[in-house]
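Human: I would love a firmer grasp of how sequence relates to backbone shape in proteins. Could you go through the record with me and say what the backbone is doing? Here is the record:
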Amino acid sequence: MIGYDDAIRGSFDTISIIDVLYKIPTSEWDALFARIAQRLKPGGTLIVKEMDPTERWKNRWNRLQERAASILGLTLGESFSYESPPDFIARLERHGFSVRAERIDRFYPHPHMLYVATAPT
């Protein structure tokens, strides 16, 4: 798979993915995380902000808003993929990361989740 990350060289202390994964099919996530694990320096940090699909009401609002944005051409990508927090944490752990997850949606209508994953040292 060729993506934007193929144009970037080197290794990094920190990589962030903010509100992007949902537009990438989950079948492509493992390849992406494998490349990220290779690019992070030992002990480096991966920061991911995504949505929690298990929060029913907030997730319904999010899906409605994202559909409207897609219809209007405001977002790229064809997918609409989310994983539950336990499944997403397990996915990152399979790539060798230690993971801390935190809800950051208090007072927000969207089910925001923050994942901070540390690469092995």
Notes: The two ends are 27 Å apart (CA to CA). Residues 56-71 form the longest helix (16 residues). The mean pLDDT is 87.
